[in-house]
């Protein structure tokens, strides 16, 4: 599984006591995010205060559709 993201984001989260939950993008589906899988990952999280969405995704260059963004 490839997770294209800026590595310092994780360090920033750790500095302020947070952690990351990844929305895995699947290369075979043109880096598409599976919203159902993401929903299962965050379902029991009580303290989500921040969501970072990189769009267009760098370095893959994938652009999230409006429908997916509204789902997020």
Q: From the structure provided, what is the oligomeric state, counting identical versus distinct chains? A: single chain
Distance between the termini: 21 Å
What would you call the structural class?
mainly alpha
- How many DSSP E strands? 2
Please give the order of strands in the largest beta sheet.
1-2
Shape: globular
Tally the structural domains: 1
Residue runs with pLDDT of under 50 for 5 or more positions = none
**Count of runs of 4 or more consecutive helical residues:** 3
Write the SSE topology.
Blueprint: H1 8-15, E1 25-26, E2 32-33, H2 35-42, H3 66-71
Q: Would you mind describing this structure in some detail?
A:
- By secondary structure, this protein is mainly alpha-helical.
- The protein has one domain (8-71).
- Helix content is 31%, strand content 6%.
- The longest helix is centred in the N-terminal third of the chain and has 8 residues, at 8-15.
- The two termini are 21 Å apart.
- The mean pLDDT is 81.
Short note summarizing the structure:
This protein is mainly alpha-helical and 72 residues long.
Main traits of this protein?
72 residues, 2 strands, 31% helix, 6% strand, globular
